[in-house]
Amino acid sequence: MLAVMANDKIGRGQTALVTGASAGIGVDLAECFAADGYDLVLAARSEAALRKVAERLAKQYGVRATPIAVDLGAPGGGEQLASRIAEQQLTVDVLVNNAGYGHAGAFAGSDRATQLGMIDLNDRALVELTHIYWPGMLERNRGGVLNVASTAAFQPGPLMAIYYASKAFVLSFSEALWEEARGTNVKVSCLCPGPTVSKFRERAGTGKTRLGKSSRPMESMPVAKQGYEAFQRNQRVKVTGGLNTLMAESVRFLPRFVLLRLVRTLQSPA
Question: Residue 241's closest CA among 195, 207, 208, 204?
Fold first, then answer.
């Protein structure tokens, strides 16, 4: 009996909700949780892609994987998702807020709906879902929240202003929650990837910038694994990659006007 318990996976009997789980880092984070025995709720807009991911992970890891297509960027999207999860009598133990998007370019002349949509998905939906599930985590004294931010969170981002600001919010919010959860068994971690191979780059247009042209993006699975392991250690912030970590740390030593000009140069078209 003791041997069986020792070999049991740490996520057995728990459910992880992963948003933005139809592609990229979201899929790989879901796989990391499934590999450790967590059942899954996978959320994104694309129902067909979600079903494909859910079927693969359920078969490969012997877990329950429930796909739910929902637009979290729409007002009330988080509440709608939570209602559909409750209808299936599922309890969310771990919330992985991965859904988000970016858009490269100057703020002047940009599409207002695109800019506001970033705030809605990257921040509002993240807060909505966390607010729904946080009290239950504290009450059960287990589980936690893994938020996906970016190395963009560590400085302002001229020519990508709203995206950088939205991720700075995610980082600040995550660190505050981590402190609020101190002394409990509830974990909070903020994953801050640098450039990563994913559909994000295509949608955001960052591959055409000087930063995008000069950097070598990491594959999404190593990023996801580092984020998952950091969450299990209750590491407050995890920046992926040695160079990205060095750059994030160096920000505080640069004069602000130098930093702003540097980021603008990097975000300019190549």
Answer: 195
In a 10 Å sphere around its CB, with 0-12 CB exposed, 13-18 middle and 19+ buried, how is residue 221 labelled? middle
**Residue in this structure with the two tokens 């994953």, named with its chain if needed:** 191
What is the DSSP secondary structure assignment for residue 219, as one 8-state letter? P
Write out pLDDT tens, residues 81-123: 999 999 999 999 999 999 999 999 999 999 999 999 999 999 9
Amino acid type, 25: I
| Range 77-82 contact pairs with CB under 8 angstroms and sequence separation of 24 or more | 77/125, 77/128, 78/125, 78/128, 78/129, 78/132, 79/128, 79/132, 81/43, 81/129, 82/129, 82/132, 82/133
Question: Mean pLDDT score of the chain, rounded to an integer?
Answer: 93
Contact 85, 137 (CB under 8 A): no
* Whole-number Å distance between alpha carbons of 192 and 149: 5
Tell me the backbone φ, ψ of residue 218, rounded to 5 degrees: -80, 150
Mean pLDDT of 40-65: 97
- With 0.85 as the threshold, say if the pTM is over it: yes
Residues assigned a catalytic role: 163, 167
242 vs 8: CA distance, rounded Å: 33
The 3-state DSSP class for residue 50 equals helix
Cross-strand bridge partners of residue 95: 17, 145
CB 93 within 8 A of CB 15: yes
SS3 content of the chain, % helix, strand, coil (to 5): 55, 15, 30
Q: Are 142 and 185 in contact (CB under 8 A)?
A: yes
